[in-house]
UniProtKB/TrEMBL annotation:
Organism: Nocardioides bigeumensis
Keywords: Kinase, Transferase
Assembly description: Homotetramer.
Ranges for region Disordered: 1-26
InterPro entries, per database record: P-loop_NTPase, Polyphosphate_phosphotransfera, PPK2-related, PPK2_PA0141
Family per similarity comment: Belongs to the polyphosphate kinase 2 (PPK2) family. Class I subfamily.
Gene of this entry: ppk2
Protein name: ADP/GDP-polyphosphate phosphotransferase
GO molecular function: kinase activity
Length: 290
């Protein structure tokens, strides 16, 4: 059920101008600004999350191995869609991998090595919140890898992903694309809100400053790794609510799943056992403030 990827523009503004993210829904579902209304979003998200639970059961029963990669600029919306995917699903079936910076030992390993141990087993869907594509994006732009390492990644990554697909892993790759102006608005909002300021890192600031070089990195990455076996799917995300729905809807469409959810069960009665519990006053309770 894999379909081709159109030649997407780099940022969401250009994508909109090119018509790639033109909505097909009822015009009444959108605000005057063109963004999706919150009530419409909530209703559709509820429906999609119900379908994600059904997909979860299907993955379990069929023993599928599913890997979903989320990439894109800072504040593009990767974390938001991952949170909605996992909100109603079981962490035993749908788990998130968000690796920190590699250790000194990991720096000496084969580049893909630390990611391999997190790949899905049968009956699992693994969501990578950033992935091995750090090498061709963050690391290359910020000078954390050499040009030789960058070129070797671009050569070896397509073969690595083809190998994953041949081994039976379903590989889906999503690139969340946000325009410079929208990214700036989101960073300014984080900066203004003390409870969100922790989300604005030095790396985010450097990335914002290097917006054009990140565009170059993304374009180069796509030229080498947008392969038939594991194509890139671009999600214009200036309207983050619509982006979440579009991404999840597309994810669901990649699988010909059916409803194999378990039937309602009859809850068992408590078995009577001769036992006397210790006095309640011997336990220490949390103070009841409410």
């Amino acid at each position: 059920m894999i379909e081709g990827v159109p030649s997407e523009a780099d940022d969401a503004t250009d994508a909109a101008a090119a018509g790639f993210d033109a909505p097909t829904g009822d015009p009444a579902d959108y605000k005057k600004s063109g963004r999706l209304k919150a009530a419409v979003y909530e209703a559709e998200m509820k429906r999609l999350q119900e379908q994600l639970v059904l997909l979860q059961y299907w993955i379990q029963t069929q023993g599928l191995k599913v890997l979903v990669i989320f990439e894109g600029r800072g504040s593009a919306g990767k974390g938001g869609v991952i949170k909605r995917i996992t909100e109603r699903t079981s962490p035993r079936t749908v788990r998130v991998v968000a690796l920190p910076k590699p250790t000194e030992r990991q720096r000496t390993q084969w580049y893909f090595q630390r990611y391999v141990e997190h790949l899905p087993a049968a009956g699992e869907m693994v969501l990578f919140d950033r992935s091995w594509y750090n090498r061709s994006n963050v690391e290359w732009v910020m000078g954390y890898c050499s040009e030789e390492e960058h070129q070797e990644f671009l050569r070896s990554c397509p073969e690595f992903e083809r190998m994953l697909v041949r081994s039976g892993i379903v590989v889906l790759k999503y690139w969340f694309s946000v325009s410079f102006d929208e990214q700036r608005k989101r960073f300014e909002a984080r900066n203004a809100e003390p409870l969100k300021r922790w989300k604005l890192s030095d790396m985010d600031l450097a990335e914002h400053e290097q917006y054009v070089r990140y565009s170059m990195a993304k374009d180069t990455t796509f030229q080498h790794t947008d392969i038939k076996q594991a194509p890139w799917y671009v999600v214009p995300s200036d309207d983050k609510l619509a982006a979440r729905l579009n991404c999840i809807r597309h994810l669901l469409s990649r699988f010909a799943y059916v409803d194999v959810a378990p039937d309602v069960v009859e809850l068992p009665r408590m078995k009577e056992v001769p036992y006397v519990r210790p006095p309640m006053h011997e336990q220490t309770f949390v103070p009841r403030a409410f």
